Amino acid sequence: MSSAASGSPVWTAWKTTCIPWKKRKDQAMTTSEHERELVLQRELPFTRELIWKAMTVPEHVNRWWGPDGFSNEKVSMDFRVGGAWTFDMVAPDGTRYPNRSIFKEITPPSKLVYDHGDGERIWFEASITLQETAGGTLLTMRQLYPNKESRDEVVEKYGAIEGGKQHLAKLEAYLKANLA
């Protein structure tokens, strides 16, 4: 548990929402979409505006983006609808993973949508929403893959759920150390 500046406790636990379809009857989503999505949520003890800044200003995002042990090089960000964000994510063993995203929707400070891939193909559509809460901001990160097999591959082969948790924990640590 961490504390906001006021000293009040806030929830910082993870909520991974890969909920069985039968339990999601009230949501307007097709079974097809449910099987293709990966959703992570984390409540952060910061304002939406501060989180938005850390996510969209290149000098900030480059310092925390990615799972533990990974760094980013060759970063370029044209932050506008239709603009590209490119970088090489470098693994602890030196393996380079080219990344290229195209921004589709930018609604400061609440929603960011982009197609994410490697420059040759799109892997998934990412949607990040920031919702104000009593304790700060609920960040929801949703990745929608072209098919269930693609989603399952990143979960099983690349550890996408654990990597996503580490990724958002790094965001919180960066905010605390550099922007709060």
Automatic annotation (TrEMBL):
<dbReference type="InterPro" id="IPR023393">
    <property type="entry name" value="START-like_dom_sf"/>
</dbReference>
<comment type="similarity">
    <text>Belongs to the AHA1 family.</text>
</comment>
<feature type="domain" description="Activator of Hsp90 ATPase homologue 1/2-like C-terminal">
    <location>
        <begin position="47"/>
        <end position="176"/>
    </location>
</feature>
<dbReference type="Pfam" id="PF08327">
    <property type="entry name" value="AHSA1"/>
</dbReference>
<dbReference type="InterPro" id="IPR013538">
    <property type="entry name" value="ASHA1/2-like_C"/>
</dbReference>
<protein>
    <submittedName>
        <fullName>ATPase</fullName>
    </submittedName>
</protein>
